[in-house]
Amino acid sequence: MEALEEKEELEETQEDLISLEISDFLDLETDEDVEKTSVTSDKSDFDWSSIDTSHLPSSYKTNSRQEKELLKLSDHFFQQYIHLCPDRKPLFIHPLNECGVQKFVSTTLKPTLLPYPDMYYWSGCASFVSDYLIMEPLKCSIIPPSSLYSPTTILKYQRGNCFDFTVLLCSLLIGAGYDAYCVHGYATLEICSLDQTQELCPRLRKPPEVPKEEDPNKYRIKYPLEPQSKFELQQKAKKEEETESTQEEEKEEEVVTEVGKPKRDPLHGLRVHAWVLVLPGKRKVPETFFINPFTGNHHSTTDECFLGIESIWNHRNYWVNMQNCRNGCKDLSFDLSDSVSWEIMFSESSEPSQLPTESSNKDTDDTVSDLRAVGTLYGTNMRFEMPLSWVAQIRVSNREYENPFPRGKKVILYDKAKLEKWAAYANGDGLVERLTVYADSDCTEELEVKEWFKHREDLLYMREVNKQTQLTTDHFRPGHPLLLKAHSYTSLEPETGHTVEFYHTARVDGLWKRFENATEMTEHFVGREDFLHTRHIEFGERDTEMEKAGITADASPRPIVKIKEYFHRNPEKPADEDIEERVFKVIDDDIQLTYHLELHDIIASKVVFSRVIGREKTEDEIFLSRENTVKYQPWASEKQKNMLYLYDLLWRLRAEQKDLKQQVRDSEAEMLNILMVREDEEANIKLSVSMFSATKREQRRE
């Protein structure tokens, strides 16, 4: 133990010397760089030295015989590493825990599977850790911390640095069956300080476009291309190169003078960070990837934000990276069985080391020679059984899981966007997430606001508000009593411009969209047996005297001026008998029919029934003559040109016009009912209790 204490003093003096050497660089960091984070930081300084450790188990305060042996072996490995690789930074192997006791980093991991469905997947674990904990920066941004607290203590106080985040997340991932590892390495200023103000919000990212499949028919005719002059192509290419060079110069000048871009980081490549590495194989993971514990986001191993790796560890072993990180993590191999790329602390096989001794190759690469030297620490590979974790069982209650945000909500700043998150049932209207999009980087002018809801009885789950036009769009889940899917409006007052979408498969009439304002109404249909797909209605103005009297819209319907209907092609009918468009001019008492075209036709057949001038119309009277009938049917049969056929057709159209007028009145009444129901739902918002919400069920039971 005296030797360990001497080594601790040596390490402290080394850290002091290093900190003195880099003080000049640290002075370059302005207060803005330190405080610049995309997540609201905790203004009150939390004093970790004042936490109560009296209630902690004895495993937190002492080391077992096996743990002491492990510390001796790891310390021997550490001393040999410093001796053989003097140019590299010290390893993060056995920091102090919350009780001031040295613990090996692998034993700080506690593999745990929490009893919640989302925690079985890496995305659920990562989002929980990033939401539940408050980020604290490292005391010195280029040196690993001197202590590493247990995941249970970190969960209790809901705060920690990148190493605390990583150990907790890795414990949950290993418990869920992933091949996960903690990584000690280097990253950019934005990653280390949780600055996402230069990134696009994930909610605004467009899905990747699916490439169009080429025509698989290899026998189709390939037409020859038009002949082109090679000289003209060369001249065109030269001009393009000249314009591109000038544009690049202009862009470089803009980048230099642009204020919004981040400044050059004087500590680039030196900032220490910890994150999680997930290897393929277990849980059907297809490829290796990183997880940033601060954000819970997935990153490729070639991401330029991660600049290098010193070491990795899991609950069974510890590996030192012996590869060159000049290009960041792009060229790194993550085959841990490769003894040239990764130096393992405790051998996982009984085979003796095949690596030559330190003095065998003097002219080889420095990194490889260091690796071989470290590989012969004991002459043969070390065989040691890792002791069990000293950490108590990780537990997260239902209340803690359902309310992960320590301050009640979480605010994340992105490039020209702000994302706010709340726990379920935290707001009376069921609001759980809000995204505000701005026109400028200073976030002063709002462009759009999107809100997401949960557990609402009216099944509203998303609302979009365009701040420029004040257009609001509500989105509903299936099951609404009115079969609503979406509702766009600027006001809930009638006839002010409403677009309503329905779940058409649940409706008898196949209506999926309706637009209505003061002068018109348009309805769209899907899957109807009569092949109707669009209906357009034009309204006239109401009587001014009735409007002045304050009569409501349902008591004073608008006069119907015109009704247009459009039909798809019915393949079972001839084209000259299949109506494509029909127009009912209600006030003018005209009916116009337009038929579909055959493939070889140019002009469609038409029939027009108009009112006879000078003749008063009586109810249910059908008057047909050659004066009020205009027809153009070049491809029609003799039967369709017969006056008796046209008389029967007009009789049917009059009856259908009467039914159509009633359908229009029903549509108006339905729109009024929708607005009344929506207004009542917004005035009296009710939240349903989820069957998975244990805390809410207990509150309701009480």
UniProtKB/TrEMBL annotation:
Domain Dynein regulatory complex subunit 7 MORN, by residue range, is 406-690
This protein's UniProt keywords: Cell projection, Cilium, Coiled coil, Cytoplasm, Cytoskeleton, Differentiation, Flagellum, Spermatogenesis
Q: Which residues form a coiled coil?
A: none
- Biased composition (Acidic residues) is annotated at 242-256
Which SUPFAM superfamilies has this protein been placed in? Answer: Cysteine proteinases
Q: Tell me where in or outside the cell this protein is found.
A: Cytoplasm, Cytoskeleton, Flagellum axoneme
Provide the primary localization: cytoplasm
Q: Which GO terms describe its biological process?
A: cell differentiation; flagellated sperm motility; spermatogenesis
Q: Which GO terms describe its cellular component?
A: motile cilium
Task: Enumerate the residue ranges of region (Disordered).
Answer: 232-260, 348-367
Residue span(s) of domain CEP76/DRC7 peptidase-like? 272-345
Q: Where is the composition biased (Polar residues)?
A: 348-359
Query: Which family is this sequence assigned to?
Result: Belongs to the DRC7 family.
Q: What is the protein name stated in its UniProt record?
A: Dynein regulatory complex subunit 7
